[in-house]
Amino acid sequence: MNKSGMRHAVWLLVAISAPAAAIGLNADGLGVAGPLLDWFSAPAQWSGPTGLPARVGEHLYYMATAMGIALLIALPIGIGLGHWGRGGLLAINVANMGRAVPSFGLVILMFLLVGFGYLPVLVALVALAIPPMVTNSYVGMQTVDPAVRTAAVALGLSRWQRLFSVELPIALPLVMAGIRTSAVQVLSTATLAAYVGLGGLGRYLIDGLAQQQLAQVVGGALVVAALAVLLEAGLAGLQRMLVSPGVRR
Amino acid sequence: MTIDWSWITRHAAEIGAQMGQHVTLAGLSLVFGLAIAFPLALVAVRWPRLYGPSLALTGVLFTVPSLALFILLIPFTGLSIATSLIGLTIYTLLILFRNIVEGLRAVPADVREAARALGYSKSRRLLSVELPIALPVIVAGIRIAAVTTIGMVTVTALIGQGGLGQLFITGFTLHFTTPLVVGFVLSIALAITVDLLLAALLWWVTPWQRGRSA
């Protein structure tokens, strides 16, 4: 998504959601808008272990640790397979297979197998984050023009120089696309960590649903949604900074 | 991890019903998604200036976590099946819209012009020239949307529906792996089956593509 596209999207989102929220939240008699404002403006909401800053922190911690581990596993595999041109069938299909795995089920499965704690959730998040990054980085490496590879060899560059200063910069847009897909998915699935007793923003959703407190549920959902959109926008910005102007598409 | 096979036989009817709901939710949201995405895509192809913003909007919407989206619909539609259905439809819509537009835009201009020169009307050109050429990309989108939706249906168990996702909740509350594994395996099997069926369907309706690598 380019810069003007992002701006368009944000404006459209505001233009659509503001009146929809105004009509929907007031006209249906549930009157969520008032309680929602109370929920956001309560001082307790902004401090302590159950406040928004703490929950956002937990959520980002889950995401960062899972993404860190998944990056270390997925990128070498995808980039390596793409560089040597091997295992293509596996590398391309792993993302499709990953999509078929229901993340909600995986989180509970790990919980039942390993027990309570962060470890089972971490394993599930890492497992979900790996496939899109493997596939995208493999495809990215495969899109490098063979003529460019040959030219790099002819220039006398070593294998590592070719990999890091020629092939990777060209593959970077797709590598980043994989990272963005995974990061958004991990952020999304991390909300389910609350279901198996952990923290994070999912707490508001799961607890609010159990206690039938609509303001808490909707408030939490709004924060998660905003966080996901910000993450995607941030990674898109990072990609713009990292990708060389010569290979932008 | 041991599987209690007798539990499965005792609960076969229940599992079947949840499978039925799973297929219904995923199937309906795909049909609704197609019905909405198709006209939108035609509009976006006809007026290319709309394409950038609409693609950006669908991209942003797609990043919203599914549970959050379902919940944000609750004030409008309550804890009803409509909430699950609308949420799932939004996700299929986002995937389908993008692929239909990409597929139609990839039709070579000379093919379009040749059809025009042969005297094809606009609608006939769309139906008998452009759509068949765009079909592989469109079906690729339907496959992604189908597999994604089948997985996502399970999340709606948290708001009262969920198909096979209800088995996840049963497994969690009873601390009992069998229902969970049954739901997990069936959900994956359903996704793979539908994916293969759609691939076969594409092969069957596009005889001119056979023998070409994708």
Describe this entry's structure for a reader.
The complex is a heterodimer of chains A (249) and B (214). Chain A is an all-alpha fold. Chain A contains 10 helices and no strands. In chain A, helix 3 (52-84) packs antiparallel against helix 8 and helix 5 (103-114) crosses helix 6. The longest helix of chain B is centred in the first third of the chain and has 35 residues, at 12-46. Chain B has helices spanning 5-10, 12-46, 51-63, 66-77, 81-105, 109-117, 122-153, 165-174, 177-205. The radius of gyration of chain B is 20 Å and the shape is elongated. Chain B is an all-alpha fold. Helix content of chain B is 80%, strand content 0%. Chains A and B meet through helix 1, helix 4, helix 5, helix 8 and helix 9 of A and helix 3, helix 4, helix 7, helix 8 and helix 9 of B.
Summarize the topology.
The complex is a heterodimer of chains A (249) and B (214).
Chain A: H1 3-27, H2 33-41, H3 52-84, H4 88-100, H5 103-114, H6 118-142, H7 146-154, H8 159-189, H9 202-211, H10 214-242
Helix pairs in contact in A: 2-10, 3-6, 3-8, 4-6, 5-6, 6-8, 7-8, 8-10, 9-10
Chain B: H1 5-10, H2 12-46, H3 51-63, H4 66-77, H5 81-105, H6 109-117, H7 122-153, H8 165-174, H9 177-205
Helix pairs in contact in B: 2-5, 2-7, 3-5, 4-5, 5-7, 6-7, 7-9, 8-9
Could you give the count of β-strands of chain A?
0
- Span between termini of chain A: 10 Å
Order of helix and strand elements from N to C terminus of chain A: HHHHHHHHHH
Helix content of chain B: over 70%
- pLDDT under 50 segments of chain A (min length 5)? none
Q: What structural category arises from helix and sheet content of chain B?
A: mainly alpha
